[in-house]
Amino acid sequence: MDANRAWLWLLVAGLLEVGWAIGLKASDGFRRPGISALTVLGMVASFYGLAQALKVLPVGTGYAVWTGIGAVGTAIAGIIWFGEARDAGRLISIALIVAGIVGLKLSAR
């Protein structure tokens, strides 16, 4: 696998992380069986994508970018769908995570 494909795997895995994090909230503590099953499936798929990316990418970079995509995506989803705070401090913090993700991508070998 080449590096571009590894980055694509990592992007998909990070987006799946956003999906399963939202699924955790929607599952109501795993009390909703259908959503819970989809959430667990999303977790497995996300970890699989991360594992594929780590065949090529450095583990520190891959894991940090994966969690960063998940953190940023989940925070934005929380703002949009769950009415969570969107104050300046939170938005700046999200932007700093994005800057870190971009920095790791640009410095990866």
Automatic annotation (TrEMBL):
Pfam families: Multi_Drug_Res. It is found in: Cell membrane. GO terms for biological process: xenobiotic detoxification by transmembrane export across the plasma membrane. It is a multi-pass membrane protein. The keyword Magnesium does not apply. The chain crosses the membrane at residues 31-51, 63-82, 88-108. It comes from the Bacteria. Keywords: Cell membrane, Membrane, Transmembrane, Transmembrane helix, Transport. GO terms for cellular component: plasma membrane. GO terms for molecular function: transmembrane transporter activity. The keyword DNA damage does not apply. InterPro entries: EmrE-like (IPR037185), Small_drug/metabolite_transptr (IPR000390), Small_multidrug_res (IPR045324). Belongs to the drug/metabolite transporter (DMT) superfamily. Small multidrug resistance (SMR) (TC 2.A.7.1) family. Gdx/SugE subfamily. This is Guanidinium exporter. It comes from Gemmatimonas phototrophica.
